[in-house]
Amino acid sequence: MDNETKASDIRVPLAFMVFGLSVIAGGIFLVIYVFYPAASRPWYPIVSFLLIGSPWIFWLLTFIYAFCIKRFLLAPAAAENDRQISRRPTTRNASSVTSSKEPEMPLTQPSV
Asked: What are the φ and ψ backbone dihedral angles of 53, each rounded to 5 degrees?
């Protein structure tokens, strides 16, 4: 990946923005619940903890998928299909290589 495609990739800033807004919204709900109990609803703390914890939940699920599921469940199935006999590249001695080749032509032909 070169620098131009990295600069034009929107996924990381978008994820950062979504998780940042989620944490800010959760913090707002929590502040309203704690400091303004008359204006709060009973579901404010539940929503606030879910919004604040959503980045953690996302990264935990990403870790479970990337390392645990791919490594332990998907990798053994892929390894079974990859069983091939490895072959060494054949090496030829110098006499067989030169005898099978056509005579080399010089790059420039002498003028007569």
From this structure: -85, -5
Q: Which DSSP category does 37 fall into? A: T
**Cα angle value 6/7/8 (rounded, 5°):** 95
The structure tokens listed for 23 are: 């944490």
- Cβ proximity of 22 and 55 under 8 Å: yes
pLDDT of 28: 96
Check residue 111 and report its DSSP letter: P
| Residue that is written with structure tokens 């332990």 in the block | 72
* pLDDT one-digit tens code per residue, 2-28: 666 667 789 889 999 999 999 999 999
